[in-house]
Each structure stands twice: as structure tokens, then as C-alpha cells.
Amino acid sequence: MTAIFPDLKGASVFITGGGSGIGAALTEGFLRQGAQVAFVQRSDASEFVAQMEIDTGARPHFMPCDITDVSRLRACIAEAAEVNGPVTVLVNNAANDRRHATEDVTEEFWDWSQAINLKAYFFACQAVIDGMRKAGGGAIVNFSSVSYMMGNAGYPAYTTANGGITAMTRSLAREFGPDGIRANALLPGWVLTDKQLEMWASPEDLAAHMEKQCLKAHLAPADIVGGTLFLASEASRMMTGQSLVIDGGVVFPG
């Protein structure tokens, strides 16, 4: 069961990485609210788009895009505005948490990781500001992660970007609040997407992580949808510059 947010009906929503994992759940969630959804993803999402039309009765607008290509990302946001109207909800979701050791990081890998996990977020935000301002306001939801709050090892470039995302979100909230533009960060815990299950979710690691959670159930992509819809909607109209954690009770911010 998902709450209905009437103000999201007809809203122009842009999601990065919206065709797989958490992003796919977000796309479906916004479609079921009656929003007009456009999303980008590097891999082909044609089958997902067709399935969404069958499942929800609405067809999201998919544009192939490597978000590290800022020019292409900007072009996709402009296209989304032409198709659905100015973007008034931006969800920066796409990320890559490839594991790596500090000693093995090259300058090229560092730049690649920041380009995906932080740089693209900034320039997507930049690209929607003017349209949101003209529309009288909007909502930005930047996905970070509790991994940096936990001080996790094994992917320092990724956790550095996560910290940067929350810091950037606060600055954007302060700068564009007078324009009615809200910016909040959403920090999921370990969400067991197909990718996570295939690459990193060993029985031992899953058991160890469960010991850290207050709620004894692993997170699924659907568990992140409600919080995102809330941050995107007028239900959170006086909430900006904040970090919303959905992790089953691993970290306690505050």
C-alpha cells in the first residue's frame, strides 16, 4: 500500500537511472501517482517502458544517457521539459558503488566515480532550476547513502561522493528556497537490488548487516518509494535541506 499524493498527478518528473533497481521502483511509483515521468539510463530500457505501460496504463519517456556526459544529460532534461512540461520534480538516483581499495584508486577511477556519483547530480540540479523557478517552485530529491555515515570501508570514492551530495543539497536548499525550490537528500541503507544480490550480497555479509538493523527485514527497492514520493510532494512543503534515512534502523542521524 502506497499513500496517494494528489499534487503529484500530472507533475513533470525526471529520474536518473529510472529503468532498473531502485530507479525502476521510483518510476513505477510516480506513474501510479499519475505523474508524467521521464527517465534516463545508460542501458536499454525499452522492455521496462512497455511493461510499465501494461502495469500502470501510463508510458514513461525513456532517453538513453550516460550521465557522465553532462551535455547529453542537459539535452535529456530539455527533452523531458518539451514532452511533459518543465521538470518540477527531479530525482537524482543513478549511482555506481563499485568496490575498490584506496591503494588501487587511480586518478582516472577517482574522476569517473565522482562524475557518476556527484558531478552529474550537480549539473542535473542546475539544469532544472530555471524551469522550476518559472513554474513557481519544485522539488529536488538527491539520493545519497548511509554508507558514508557508517564510515564503511571498501569504496572510499563512493562514500566521499555521498557526503558531497548531502552537503550540496543543503547549499541548494539555502540558495533556491526563496524561489520555492526545495532540495532534500534521501539516504537508503543496503537495498537488495538484483545488482546487489548478484555482486556483493554474500550470506555472511547479509547476516552481519542484519545484526546492525533494528527492523529485521532486508530492504527492497519498493521500500524507498514512499519516502521519495513524500519528499517530492507538497506533503513535505516546509521541508528542505534535510536528510531522510530509510535503512531499517542502522544509523540514527540527528
Give a description of the structure.
By secondary structure, this protein is of the alpha/beta class. Helix 3 packs parallel to helix 4 and helix 4 runs parallel beside helix 5. It has a single domain, classed as 3-Layer(aba) Sandwich (Rossmann fold), CATH 3.40.50.720. 44% of the residues lie in helices and 15% in strands. Helix 1 links the parallel strand 1 and strand 2. Strands 3-2-1-4-5-6-7 form a 7-stranded parallel beta sheet, sandwiched between helices. It comes from Rhodophyticola porphyridii. Keywords: Oxidoreductase. This is SDR family oxidoreductase. GO terms for molecular function: oxidoreductase activity, acting on the CH-OH group of donors, NAD or NADP as acceptor.
What's the number of helices? 8
Q: What is the CATH topology classification name?
A: Rossmann fold
Neighbour order of strands in the largest sheet: 3-2-1-4-5-6-7
- CATH homology group: NAD(P)-binding Rossmann-like Domain
Note poorly predicted spans.
none
Q: What is the helix fraction of residues, given as a range?
A: 40-55%
The count of β-strands is 7
**Total discrete domains:** 1
CATH class: Alpha Beta
Domain Ketoreductase: 11-203
GO molecular function, one term: oxidoreductase activity, acting on the CH-OH group of donors, NAD or NADP as acceptor
Family: Belongs to the short-chain dehydrogenases/reductases (SDR) family.
Protein name: SDR family oxidoreductase
Architecture blueprint of SSEs:
Blueprint: E1 12-16, H1 21-32, E2 36-41, H2 46-56, E3 61-64, H3 70-84, E4 89-92, H4 107-135, E5 138-143, H5 156-176, E6 181-188, H6 194-199, H7 203-212, H8 225-232, E7 243-246
Parallel strand pairs: 1-2, 1-4, 2-3, 4-5, 5-6, 6-7
Helix pairs in contact: 1-8, 3-4, 4-5
